[in-house]
Amino acid sequence: MSHGRTLLALAMVVLVLPACGGGTTGSTTTTSxxxxxxxGLTPPAGCYLTVFLIETVTKTQTLRVQNQLLxxxxxxxxxxxxxxxxLRRFAQKHPLAAQGFAVNPFTDRFEVVPRTHGSMFxxxxxxxxxxxxxxxxxxxxxxxxxx
Length: 147
Fold this sequence. Notes:
Elements lengths: L2 H14 L18 E4 L10 E5 L5 H13 L3 E7 L1 H11 L1 H5 L9 E6 L4 H12 L3 E6 L8
Parallel strand pairs: 1-3
Antiparallel strand pairs: 2-4, 2-5, 3-4
């Protein structure tokens, strides 16, 4: 393949992997750190990852994971979702089922918006190789859809 065709192919890959987080364009996008936002009754729109914490996570461990996520330049936005908020979200969609819970079955978690669609794989891989008080990292359904 010629040098020009290689550059064109690379440019096409960059265009195919659009930003999931809706960050601004320009060179500062790849070097800026993530923003901590307050989670609400609805999860982020579009592509995001849910980082589930272990049931027995301590506040110190939670803060360590939060700082790790905020320092990751592949992430644009981080929000902490407490188990209480997880239950409120569930109850909003399934009120009758939620009334039947004797205990809150949800765990604390983070919702993470990756900078690009492709960066979600690197973020998942980071947790897979370095572990921590994490039980699972799952992409939202929107991550599998064309952006």
